[in-house]
Structures are given as structure tokens and as C-alpha cells.
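Annotated sample (chain length 176).
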Amino acid sequence: MSIKPLVILPDPLLRQVSKPVERFDADLRKFSTDMLDTMYDAPGIGLAAIQVGEPLRMLVIDLAKEDEPKAPQIFINPQILSSSDERNVYEEGCLSIPDYYAEVERPAQVRVSYVDIDGKQHEVAAEGLLATCLQHEIDHLNGVLFIDHISRLKREMVVKKFKKLAKDRPPGRLAV
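Output written by the structure step:
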């Protein structure tokens, strides 16, 4: 088990577009386990590789409730193929923007293609929380944060707060 340090706003790495995963090997398996361990430890329900400093198009999700067995999902090179006109609003938070939550409106359903840890291609039709979580994490892979979906005024206030916190924090990533 290896818990990775989280990249926290305003780190410019969070705005970087991630590169496709090309090698499916033991290193990728270990990294996916580290990502899951980091997500569970935080705790969170989703984590993109860029949030632990790796600009790879990879994310992990586990939407199991506390009293349910873990149900980890690994999405490599995910791509939204289509999204519904119908919209849903969820209160979102982010491990890279700790303790800040805001209501975000997104498509209610999405169809996503992705590759699993063994390199096999898949498609999933997602709705509800899974659809929201996939969109949130895929946004990370494109350098987009959930605060980009809220009003400019609120976003500027959040960024200002985190810039001030970053000045007061010792250099380096935030270990959880």
C-alpha cells in the first residue's frame, strides 16, 4: 500500500492536459493500486492520476457506500462519447480542493469508452452519481476543475483562498 501525496489548488499541474496511457504493465497495475489506496485514505469516491502528480489519462472510482464491500473501478484513456440533454445537479467536492463543495450541473447520462487495466476496450452507459463522477474525473484529465462550472465570482473567491493557504503551507504536495 502506497499513499500518494495529493496535488492541491492552486498547483498549475491541475491545469495540465494528461497524456494517454500507452503501456499496460506491472508498473501501471501498481500505480492503479496506489491511486485506489490514496482515494480510500483521503477519503474520496474518485481520483484522477493528475491529482497525484502523474499526467496520465487514468482515473479510479468507487461509489460503494460505507456498509458495502469496496467496488473499485479503473478507467484508462476514458473518453465521453455522448451525453444527454437532460441535466442533473450534484453537490461536488474534490480531493484537490479540500473542504470546498458546490452544486454543479452536468449531463444526467453519459456514454464513456475506456480501456481496463488489462488493455481491453469497454463502453459504459452511466447515469446518476457514476455519470457525475466520470465527468468530474475526466475533466481533471483535461485540466478542468469542478469550480470551472460555478460562477466566476465564486470561483475567484475559492482560488484566492487556496492561493493564500498555499503561501502558509510548506512547499511540496499535501500528504494525506
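Annotation: The chain has three helices and seven strands.
Annotation: Strands lie at 46-48, 58-61, 73-83, 87-94, 97-107, 109-115, 121-127.
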